[in-house]
Design brief:
The complex is a heterodimer. Chain A is built from no helices and twelve strands. Chain A is mainly β. The N and C termini of chain B lie far apart (36 Å). The chains are: A mainly beta, B mainly beta.
């Protein structure tokens, strides 16, 4: 079946540190891959996405590259800010059927000043 | 443009009570979804709808019912609340095309069953 595994949290970093949150997936076929972000007290927002192998999604300084050979979609940012503190979810979606999303368990990120 | 709105924001129920969580979107999206988010976990799909009058089960449908009489509204019904249904519930919508879509989420309803 389809599944997504994210690195265990919580993750705590200092401002301006480099961020990596690992995400690997298992899927049949060629899914689309997503990173969603959930700020405290809010719903999920799409952060970035990639729809085919070797695509790079980017937004707000965050990047992730769709690696088919390693079935990974790791999230990176070169210099984090306190405002990046949130929970980050990796997700996949198969292109067949009703476009259902399968989420990882989420990684809580805290950035200290 | 309000996007996806959910009511109520918070609710406490007693075991065996029933309630309806409301979800409305004003983006003319054809697809709508209900998820639940348990502490420390990702979201699990409860039910989804591909258009007015059409609904289908997701991963965890037991204990819930839905209806989709209009494009805009997708209410979720809990008939006999149980402590296992304590969770945060998110509604989402998307405009489905062959090229794919992006799901937009509401702010969530935090439900506690005691």
């Amino acid at each position: 079946g389809n599944s997504v595994t994210q690195m265990e949290g919580p993750v705590t970093l200092s401002e301006e540190a480099f961020l990596t949150i690992n995400c690997t997936y298992t899927a049949t076929g060629y899914p689309s891959l997503f990173w969603y972000v959930q700020y405290p007290g809010e719903g999920l927002q799409l952060l970035l996405k990639a729809t085919k192998a070797d695509d790079k999604g980017s937004n707000k300084g965050f990047e992730a590259t769709y690696r088919k050979e390693t079935t990974s979609f790791h999230l990176e940012k070169g210099s984090v800010q306190v405002s990046d503190s949130a929970v980050y979810f990796c997700a996949l979606r198969r292109l067949q059927g009703a476009q259902k999303l399968v989420f990882g368990q989420g990684t809580r990120l805290t950035i200290n000043p | 443009n309000a996007g996806v709105t959910q009511t109520p924001k918070f609710r406490i129920l007693k075991i065996g009570q029933s309630m309806t969580l409301q979800c409305t979107q004003d983006m003319n999206h054809n697809y709508m979804y209900w998820y639940r988010q348990d502490p420390g976990m990702g979201l699990k799909l409860i039910y989804y709808s591909v258009g007015a009058g059409i609904t289908d089960k997701g991963e965890v449908p037991n204990g819930y019912n839905v209806s989709r009489s209009t494009t805009e509204d997708f209410p979720l019904r809990l008939e006999l609340a149980a402590p296992s249904q304590t969770s945060v519930y998110f509604c989402a919508s998307s405009y489905h095309t062959e090229a794919g879509d992006t799901q937009y989420f509401g702010p969530g309803t935090r439900l506690t069953v005691l």
